[in-house]
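It is worth pausing here to work through a concrete case rather than discussing structure prediction in the abstract. The textbook approach is simple: state the sequence, then state the predicted structure, then interpret. We follow exactly that order.
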Amino acid sequence: MELTQLEYFLTVARLQHMTMASKALRITQPALSHAISKLENELNVPLFERNGRNIKLNRYGQMFSKWIEQAMHNIENGMQEIEEWSNPDTGVISISYLNILGVDLVPTLVKAYQLNHPNVRFELTQGNLGDIDEHLEQGLSDLMITSKESIIDNHQWIVIHTMPLYIVVSSRHRFAGHSALSLAELSGEPFVGLKNNCGLKATILSRFQNTGFVLTSTYDAEDLITVAGFIKADLGVSVLPKTLGLMLDGLVWIPITDEGWYWEIGLKWRKDHYVSPAAKRFIEYVELSSSNHDEPQG
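Step two, the predicted structure:
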């Protein structure tokens, strides 16, 4: 059973005349008659009472037309909803992002985009790195905002923001009065690290590898806000980006003298997945804006 057969059936049912129906559908009358006969054979019942070129629904046809009209209406609604979701002017952009980025970066980005595209809606999902990676891989998100180290070969990537990283200590710590520090000076200090599901961990580990300095974590926290809380409680020191949500009272943020200590945040999506026109326009917006992102600071 084909969709065109059902469209032909409803047209014949409405006009109750084969010639008029064939003209309305812009097909030959024999082709229309064949399509209707094929549909009746598939259903194993006649759908019309025939009288020459005049034709009208029988009781089976009336029964069938009721459900087909409803089905066609549902199909039209489905097509309309897809068009609305994908339309670059009125569509929905689905983005997953790291928890900490929901405090400042993501809402700022969404607000700025909607100033020029007020009818576009966003479907936002936040979580740890594992959760949002899975969301993207399963096709539940069009795009993902995360750290550069999480990208793999089948991903596309655009930088959104580059955040300098700081050594963070409590206001009671002996380093609190320093204007700057190198990572080597943290040797022997209890360090508050991150578990694997945090997007910043790969960045920090790669930076430590480049310096040749090995630091053993005393504590491993689930997320960045927990790291900040541990530091405030004077349980250790750490390396964090200076972003809203982490700037707790009682913390001191010390610039790092070593080069390359920054956290690169960007937009990624899968090369092999369909990207809607709405999401493509957002990507173009981010790409255009990326030339203004902060320069790395060491």
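Step three, interpretation. The domain at 92-160+265-292 is CATH 3.40.190.10 (D-Maltodextrin-Binding Protein; domain 2). The chain has three domains: 3-86, 92-160+265-292, 163-263.
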